[in-house]
User: Fold this.
Amino acid sequence: MVDHEKLVQSIKQIRKLMVVIVLCFVAVASILLYVLIDPTGSTFKSKQSLQEYVKVLEVDEVGFDKIENGIHVRTGLIEAEGLTEVVNNCTNCHSAKLVTQNRMNKEQWIATIRWMQETQNLWNLGNKEEIIVNYLVTNYPSKKKGRREILTNIEWYELKN
Assistant:
């Protein structure tokens, strides 16, 4: 009988040990799964209140069309008549930097608009086209001098293999 009781005690101890091992495994697996799902631990961080979020949005909207020193801050375009039309029609598809680096005369700007309409799916600008072109010609006209002067007095040589 004594051997039978010892056997039962041993089985109970093994069962308790197995339960502890399984619980430890489940705890470790749960922690690993959480880290995989939310590696930043954002669940435990304080969340931004709705009022703070609305304040951030209001600040963004105020600065959205801000003009400083005659420059539209968001785009870098010069403040002048037609700025709104240019921002609304040109910066939907490309950066305003593309406008500022391409200085052209009226015919070239119109040709560029036509090219964008034919190949880049630019919509019909209607009566806004004249406003846009006038803005571009006035504020970003063509320049006589390019980025650098033409190279002169160069002694060219052939590259040898």
Summary: Strands lie at 67-68, 71-72. The helical segments are 2-37, 50-64, 83-90, 96-101, 106-119, 128-139. The chain has two domains: 7-41, 50-139.
